[in-house]
Fold each of these.
Amino acid sequence: MIRSGADSPTLVLQQSPRPGVMVVLWRVCSVLRGAPLFSLAFLTLAIGGAVLAPRVAPYDPIQNNPLATLSPPSWQYLMGTDHLGRDILSRVIYGARISLTVGFLAVFVSGVAGTVIAMVSGVVKGWVDTVLMRLTDAFLSLPYLMVAVTVVSLLGPSLVNVILVIGLLRWMTYARTIRGEVLRLTETDFVRLAHVAGTTRVGIIQRHILPNIVNTLLVLSTLDVASAVITEASLSFLGLGVPRPLPSWGTMLSESQTYVFTAWWMPVFPGVTITLLVMSINFTGDWLRDRLDPTRRQL
Amino acid sequence: MGYYIVKRVGQGIVTLWLVTLGVFALLRLTGDPLSFLLPPDATKEDREYMIAAYGLNKPLWQQYLVFNKNLMAGRFGESLRFNSRDALEVFLSRLPATLQLTCTAMVLSLVFGVVLGVLSAIHPDTLFDRVGKALAILGQSMPVFWVGILLILLFTVYLGWLPSAGGIERLGLKGLILPSVTLGWLFVAAHMRIVRSSMLDALDADYIKMVRAKGMPRRIVIWKHALKNAAIPIFTLFAVNFAQLISGAVVTETIFAWPGVGRLLVDSIFVRDYTVVQAVVFFSAAFIVVINIVVDVTYAWLDPRIRIAG
């Protein structure tokens, strides 16, 4: 550091295009201004826990331990153990894996399905649009948890089926909202000009419409992860979700019902976790919406 | 108006047709329908009777016609679990319990949601408003079944005030409290937020300033003039909420052993009583469709702009 004074001119020249540490920090801070820090921290914790579950979980989540059934929270078992002596903390950590996997993948399925339908509907228009929107209305008025449990039971409960069923029953919000956006965009001058210039429909979608709906899509899908997580837990709670002994939070809460009179820690900890996760996702989604919506943005 | 009603009813019929198509396709495409419709210990005669009744030896399109014919006549088939009672009959016998639960929950959530929403709108940014907002966020983030378990933990296990399982026949009105609070909780939050924001808009409108300028007491301005206009968005959301209410009822009935349609569905799935499952899904969908039509038509009647926009 002391010697750097001699060749400082070249150093400055080389470093000038790269922002300094303080500048990077400042940029990060300004991006995060008004961000729900607690929510982002909890989300990071949940995703980190889910990814690193085998490393951070203190015990095996499905290993029974007949010597430690229903033991209350202690230093050995921070969240206590369940009726089979399994460590609840470890099950909660592994449960994050299932919840987040189902949450993200189901949202991916419904996002893709909804966007495709919205694109076709908004770009082709005419009777195709009418048919697709009637279909959307029809799906919206389904008793959707009832349909979900029925379909899962017919196909057989498994992680993949749960993801597909949740995804394919929830694309309607995307179809509706994004179709509106597409209709608005197709009326704009730049899309009309592209059309006049001879760009194909596919080209217009790729180059002009998709980039403009990314923000909407991002906000919608963030908020939707929360409801997908709740739906997965509901299905597992009813016994028609992720099959046992996989530690889904819904399954844990369902099992806790029998022991609610003796072991308060069995329902409380998984429930708190799922509530915090859903809340964090919702806050993050709201924040993203405020950041990405140009009319609401105040930088 | 007449055209609008016809159009909405037409849409409703299309929806129901899609539901039946879905049920038909799922039962046929996921393997042998007989394995869903018959108990595992069914005799050869049973199987032959079933094949004849549903036309299972005919081509697929004919099977679909038979299926629709049975549907039109309200014949879903016999329940395996309930001594071969008709599936429709089983469904109807469970309907009152579900209606008790959902209606109580809805009324609870409307009363609390509207009162809390109005109060936080007339005292914006006070402690009351903040607590209300926090509660609303909690309400939207807590899964129904966890709320139910927590209520049982508090009121049944620790305080011992209220029973946790049964139905209205066995427990009387006391048994209705926990389930309906569990189910209504989610909607209190939703209603409160809507009423608050639309109430803030309404209080800002010119006609309210006018009424106040005329010297009308504040109480009447708020609860009569402003609330009337602020309440409209609740009805818009009612249709969406209703589908959610039915979903919530499935979970709530399971927690509290409530003898309603939702629990019937889950129990029937576990004993593979698919004739009843079909009936429950179909009639619940029909119920939602009818409610949606009624809400939309009422709404169009109240607000002429909707009829014209179609």
Amino acid sequence: MNARLIWPQKIVSGDVVKVRLLIQHPMETGYLQDMTGHLIPRNIIQWVSCVYDAQEVLRVETSSGIAANPFFEFYVRATVTGLMVVKWLDDDGQAGEFRQLMSVQD
Amino acid sequence: MSLSFLSRSLKTKPLFSRQRREGLVLGWGLGLGLGLGSFFTLGFMKNASAADAPVEHMMTSGRLRSMQEMLGGIQGTVVNERQLQHAGIKLHLSILADNGNSVPLGVSVDSPMTPEDHVRDIYLLSQRNPVLVMAHLHLGPWNARAELNTRVRLAGTQKVVALARTNTDRWLVDSADIIVTESACVDASN
């Protein structure tokens, strides 16, 4: 379970911050075959959620249409210093979580 | 089991002893029997596995959906082509993608994103992928900007549609055609 969250270093309260999220996940579609001809079973992230300052700032219901190692770039208004908690769930029932502290000045 | 009748008819002394002859026949018989048996058994066992069903039967892509089909296929939402406004939303997609497995895509909606007027949902629809809705993004005033950049999978040359819904139930739409050189969901090794 690995992910990366990137935002600008200097954030002032009230700023509109561009957040980039990258999750490490194969996003197997279930349509591809391996070398022996067997279908690689489907394993897709079903949803991705990001909570910041007690508010869900991102919720994406994904499908096999999203590329492997899902990448999302979205915007959030910065309020106070707080944890940004990213969670996701895939077809195999594996729940992922990633936390990062967003330091907001003012 | 004796095969000595063969030698008796020829009136010559047999080349191998009876024991050796019988041993050879038994050995060859078992060998061929096991060989052919295992060949057929393994072959049938492989075919019997459900996971080996041909990919063509599972993929329903290839057929281009109509706009009506695409709008009607969104679960939990009823939207008509007549309701759509072709303004205020922009889908950023390059004209050509070398590989459909990872295609950068951007969608931005012109919206003040205030509690009174903001974008609630953004749908990314595919005309040709096996799955119609590539992503469904939930937004709110806390986002300050109704924009998303992501990477999608495209199973072939098609039209991609971005659909946005505001809190006042206005539907905004933008679409873009893209040529995909190497489709996703199809292995080059096939």
